[in-house]
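question for whoever is on the cluster today: can someone run the full assembly for these? two chains, 747 residues total. i dont have access anymore since they changed the login thing
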Amino acid sequence: MHMHRRASTLPVHIFVFLAPATLVYTLFMTYPLLDSLRLSLYAIEPTGVERFVGLKNYIDLLTSPDYAPRFWGALRNNIVFFVIHMVVQNSIGLLLATLLTTKGRGRTFYRTVIFMPTVLSFVIVGFIWNLILSPLWGVTEGVLKSIGLGHLFRPWLGLESSALITISLISVWQFVGIPMVLFYAALIGIPEEVIEAARVDGATSWHIFWRIKFPLILPTVGVVGILTFVGNFNAFDLVYTIKGALAGPNFSTDLMGTLFYRTFFGQQLQLGNPTLGAAVAGMMFIIILSGVLAYMFIWQRRIRPTEL
Amino acid sequence: MLRKVSFLVATALVLAACAQPQAPQAPAPTQPAAGAGAQQPSGAQVTLIIESWRNDDLPIWQDVIIPAFEKKYPNIKVIFSPTAPADYNGVLNSKLEAGTAGDLITCRPFDVSLKLFEKGYLAPLNDLPGMENFSDFAKTAWSTDDLKTTFCVPMASVIHGFFYNKQAFEKLGLQEPTTWDEFYQVLDKIKADGTYVPLVMGTADMWEAATMGFQNIGPNYWKGEEGRLALIRGQAKFTDEPYVKTWQQLARWRDYLPPGFESIKYPDAQAFFTLGRGAIYPTGSWEIALFEKQANFPLGIFKPPVEKAGDECYISDHVDIALGMNAATKHPQEARTFLSWVASAEFAELYGNALPGFFPLHSTPVELKNELAKEFVSWRNECKSTIRNSYHILSRGEPNLENELWRVSAAVINGTLTPEQAAKEIQEGLERWYKPAQQ
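^ ran it for u. tokens below:
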């Protein structure tokens, strides 16, 4: 009797507690996102009236000779940007985390120092690296000369062949602390007995890492991967601060974010096109959503945290 | 990688903000509400706010220009409220849409302001007392295409040219070059000496290559207004000789630029030149104030070189800045009073001398005190004036001509595009949307 009554009463307190978050989230996240997607299906007439055009903006973006080269170029650059982060940032992050779990001196110091760039503003990071790599005032050329490699110096940020890679590596420098901390937290969560048992069985450190530690932190590898993916396909600030909205030279550093900014807000004499810009944002949403879904339904289903 | 505030969220918020329907702006009451009967509107103090992108000029407006106006019109208080140049167009649009923009709007030349006028944000100013002080050339940039309606009071233009380090020229026994042959002879001598970098410019920001390169030296090839109007009428193409030759000159500059110029930004180049490490700097009159403050050597200027000595010369005398009235202002009478004053000879003289390098467009010649500014403006008597060819009409479509000129001009100097390829890409881009160019 008592049980029955409790089940049938409306659990008002649950709604009360959920309401603030739901309201704020709906108002500031869900509604703007849906409205942005709605906007991407419209065109604005010269008179300022919005007119429904269906998927025309998306078709233009993917196929028209005016916009398609920029879209595919930005997507290609974004993929390069992402691959560099996955390969360089996340492997270095893992390596650093592993080193931090060994019993060396000054671990806390290094952990803090390596994490520090993450909290710096993009503007500062862009400015610092512009100076470091500057052919006029930078230290890079001098340092290379002092070790006899001066002839290797190039204005990397200004060359079509190297600008994107250089900016990717600057971003890696800035954010390597995040995978490091996540991997570190996962690694120190591995019970000492497991590793001791392996050592007793004669496993080398190499084997212990690849056969025991790495499989145990696979869920974290997935989390780091998806965070990198989402972050990279939203990236904008670093390119904007270093190269401006035109993402030069010759669009070689153009990412989805800079393409969106240029399309939506305009650039110098180019007037902004809010509806086409919304379509770029819509494509970014679709790309990120498919990545997240792939992660949730493929990776997360296969990789289960190993119970110890 | 991880961002505390995802860019997408910010994006979505902005989209939502911009998607808000425009609130109809009620006609502003100029009279105080009934009940405050005793108050006299004419005696009330009114505050006008000026929107501008010229944040560098804030002290000059506050200390020189506005006090001069307020002395004459003590009932009107004026506040100069600038936004960062790169954000100005976007911020201004949002403010106008939301009905929170200032009473007076600083106008960019041509299409950006025309669009604001067409949307009803800028008031027509044809009947403004003082408008008769400006020539049609000065008013083109802020008038409808048929030149029937003008919506901003022209304030100033900037003139392109080359600055040089006089000390370096004296030391090496060099003369100001007037032809291209002399120009390269001078550069070769500076290069052979090795003390100075011959030509200071970077291509990292790209706009210098287009604005200080292409638009600076090109008018001599395309014969100023003649060539500019021929492009608009579709009678000339960017693949024609004058344009290709301009890019060919830019390509030759590569050998004289500082090492690593591909990643040198505008402020880097300015600092490098004013530190006395370079000899020649292609740019425009707007640098006068900064260069005179920072350089501890005497500065000289010379005009863009011509092909043969005695050739007719053309300069880029680009109409750049004007002031208009927010159509929704609550104080139209006072705003017009201020604009009439801006259209006066008194303002022209004040402005031209407070900001050397920004040349008043007023029909009465202004007595300038700055020597370099005087020399720049004297070129108007020797050469024919024109404006940057991408600003009027030709940047209305996509791909945007101005952006494309930045991209290809930088690429030509970097050596990743040939002048011929650059010309072809620009012409093809223009033909994709501009009907007269397709003939």
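summary bc i know u wont read the tokens: Chain A touches chain B through 69 residues (CB under 8 Å). The mean pLDDT of chain A is 91.
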